[in-house]
Amino acid sequence: KRALIQYYQCFQRILSQINVVQYVFDLVTFCSRINYLYGKLKLDSFEKYISFVYPYILEKTTYLYSEKDFDNYVFENAASVVRETEISDTGAGRDIVELKYKSLEDPDNKVFKLLRDAPLDDVYILNGKQLSFYSKNIKRIGDQLTATKLLTNIWTDISWEGIAKEGGVNFKKGKKPEQLIRRIIDLATKKDDWVLDSFLGSGTTTAVSHKMGRRWIGIEMADHCYSHCLKRMVNIVEGSDQNGVSKIENWQGGGGFKFYELADALLTRNEKLPVYSINPSYTFDMLAEALCKIEGFSYQPKGKYQGQSSENRFIHITMEFVNNKYIYSLMTELAENQSLLIYCTRMQSAITLPEKVEIKNIPRDLLKKYDFESEVR
Q1: Cα–Cα distance measured from residue 319 to residue 287, given in angstroms and rounded to the nearest whole number
Q2: How many C-alpha atoms does 82 have within 13 Å on its Cβ side?
């Protein structure tokens, strides 16, 4: 009877603290009901009786109780909720093990405390067992407290249901939850770090990276680069995408991005012979701009030169035959401390070059630097 009364009083105290309206009746009446039920049921033992009456107490004292109310109470008082855990003599530290046996020898059931320097938590021991506080399992995620557990390399807590609307694009059997990508990015990067996804799919990686304040590069060669990725990122910048992790990251829009289309391969292979030539789809201006990019020059056509890498370094690109006379005609615009790089398709076999002039052949010298075969495949 004492045990049942204690149960009842315990529930009364808890429920009163979380403002849940409780079923109130006189404790004397309650005790008389206990006696009546015990005699009426004619059970073999009082323990079995407790197993019957315990759910009855729960029902009568918590008929307006909700799971959310109880969760909130536990979260807000997590520093006072504990459980006992075993202390391994071989796995725990020496100080903890010594305190464990000191606790076992104490007749007064006192709680022993081991002070430890940060970042280690203090240790509390009762009757040879460590008291583990539930507060270690509580984290604030977004705007609410929630229960957590140690993260392993198997993640089953992130739901894949309901992700079809994320980003405002549909990508059956290919889209991943923004929550999943957010966790990966959060584990591996910090704000302003670069994130690369070379198979962008529906754009989830760049979407989450943008919301989390990361810089990003996304690459996609299929048509959904336009229908999914571009559309999704425009919505994010404009702030109209409020799905996925937008609420957690308090995303309201902002930022921007550049959208590039990859040009065709600069060189193409002959269908019958193992030789390369300039892609016929390239105009001269396209060729000049591509070569400037390859060699690290800014594309700035001016006079005889197509680009400049510094105040004293220029590049000239031509489809004409290059000989000594041609080279010296280019040098008329060069100052004494300036140098020149020439790219051409044909040149004199025995050519004499001034010290400040370098010449390269198209496509031979390009093939030394890059593998165009993979692009052809």
Answers
A1: 10
A2: 13
The rounded distance, in Å, linking the Cα atoms of 377 and 369 is: 18
Kindly give the residue spans of alpha helices, DSSP state H, lying in the chain: 2-17, 27-41, 46-61, 67-76, 94-105, 178-188, 204-211, 224, 231-238, 284-295, 324-330, 364-369, 373-376
114: helix, strand or coil:
strand
Average pLDDT over residues 103-128: 89
Number of residues written out for the chain: 377
* DSSP 3-state of 79: helix
Shortest CA distance to 233 belongs to which of 212, 258, 213, 214? Answer: 258
Note whether 329 and 322 are within 8 A (CB).
no
Mean pLDDT of the chain: 83
Q: Are 7 and 14 in contact (CB under 8 A)?
A: no
Q: Rounded distance, CA 265 to CA 273, Å?
A: 18
Torsion from C-alpha of 100, 106, 109, 114, nearest 10 degrees: -40
pLDDT over threshold 80, residue 5: no
Among 20, 90, 32, smallest CA distance to 58 is for 20
Give mean pLDDT, residues 332-356: 90
Give the CA-trace dihedral at 42, 47, 49, 50, to 10 degrees.
Answer: 170
For residue 368, count CB atoms less than 10 angstroms from its CB and return exposed for 0-12, middle for 13-18, buried for 19 or more: exposed
Question: By CB neighbour count within 10 A (0-12 exposed, 13-18 middle, 19+ buried), where does 232 fall?
Answer: buried
Distance in angstroms (rounded) separating the CA atoms of residues 370 and 291 = 12
